[in-house]
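I hope you will forgive my troubling you with a question about protein structure. The record follows directly beneath this note:
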Amino acid sequence: MNIASIDIGSNTVLLLIAEYNETTKEIKTILNRYRMPRISKGLKVTGIISEEKINALFEVLEEYQKEITKNNCERVILKATNAMRVANNSAEIKKAIKDKFDFDVEVVAGKEEARLSFIGASSAVENKENKTVIDIGGGSTEIIYGNDDKIIYRKSFEHGAVSLTEKFVDSYPMREEVVEKIGTELDELFADLKPQNFYTDICVAVAGTPTTLSCMNLGEKNYSDEVIEGSLLSHENLNQLIKTLKILLPNEIVNNYGQVVTGREDVILSGALILRKLLTILNLEKITVSSKGIRYGALIDYVNKL
């Protein structure tokens, strides 16, 4: 049977359509779609997702509904994360989605978001030993540590690439004092992360920040799952990217790096600073990059319960 899995994040709305073979238990990807309506824009100030951004979300869901119908999906799984967790009008948006599309939205808690990210990211590596998963979203960052048998540590931190940018960045190129303020904020945010508690050098980073940075590092101007899945991103790669991004305007970032960064050009530097900080704190030299985040985890979690 064909199953659709949608992840409504603070910046992106992602669709996965996959075929699940109930006999062999195999999952085969049919379609991936990435759209960036950034529903969290202004959320920190107003406490609500704006009418403009609700309409943008609905445009994406209309597009996805056509793909879901065309591919005869028997089940639609829809998870929403930080923006819908904190928005005061989340309940109204859920009802509107149900009325308009007949989709049931589950707004997941931070710990559940982390669990689903771990399940998805774990499917990207064959190693059964302990691993760390980093999921940098628009409004939050999840850190998960464990193995295929159990999750040992998981925590959702209340900052992502978009929220960090909205809090600190008021002009471009980003001033050095702003970079330093972000660094101080991240030190405080991740204060309870200690490298001695993460007994592994296997780390998988999922979501749009690491996949975009990997494309930029590899000179890929258009996103490709085939190229990015399993690619490596080192501490030195991040240093070089940050050094370049710090002196560019958002439109110059698009001109330099192409379509792959469109929609993230104003927040990709903040995302890179988060990722570099985590590599430094966890004493990691490099990470494996994967696109298999929450939507994959939610699908795998669903079929495992059939």
In short: Residues 125-290 form a domain with the Nucleotidyltransferase; domain 5 fold (CATH 3.30.420.150). The first strand starts at residue 2 and ends at 8. The chain is about 45% helix and 20% strand.
